[in-house]
Amino acid sequence: MTKNMRRAMATLIVLALSAGCGSSDKEKPLQTRSKDDTSRQVETYFRDLTALVTGDPDAPSKKFGLGPAPCEGANGETAKDDRYYILGTYSLRLPAAQHKTALDKLREDWRNKNYETTEDLHQVKDGTWSITVRNPTDGFKINADEPNGENIGFMITSPCYQAPAS
To answer: Which 3 state secondary structure label does DSSP give 106?
Structure first.
């Protein structure tokens, strides 16, 4: 496993853990939403990001994963009920020379949309760039970084939802 892959996995774990429901969230009723609907929202976020960066919502990309996971409490405990979040991981093909410009464009767009910056655009130890934001309107989180030379990686995480009753 390369250093960039290890860093991407570590970021994925941090985002996944931070997506869990905190202890105060357990006291509040969660919105009810189907996993399919939430997954479509994650996919829409990625298509919109792709269109913004490349001008083409169908630009070459790869989906590594899209699926539900149980929410976690403040102490890392896994929800035993139907509380879940959706995590989508993607890679957008883009020449390395365009990465910083693309990330700057995303940062500006997110600022204009009043997204909360949870980790501002910064260079990590290996010289690549990373940024993480949260949309306060719907609670979705987005991380964009450079997992390797010809791609920008995206991790899009929904907030916790309660699955509808069967």
So the answer is: helix
Name the percent of the chain lying above pLDDT 70.
Answer: 83
To the nearest 10°, report the CA torsion of 10, 154, 115, 13: -20
Closest CA to 21 of 68, 78, 59: 78
Structure confidence by residue, pLDDT tens digits, 73-87: 778 888 888 899 999
Rounded distance, CA 23 to CA 72, Å? 9
Q: How far is it, in rounded angstroms, from Cα 102 to Cα 82?
A: 37
Read off the pLDDT band of 151 (50, 70, 90): very high
Q: How far is CA 112 from CA 16, 46, 99, 102, 142, in A?
A: 26, 18, 20, 15, 15
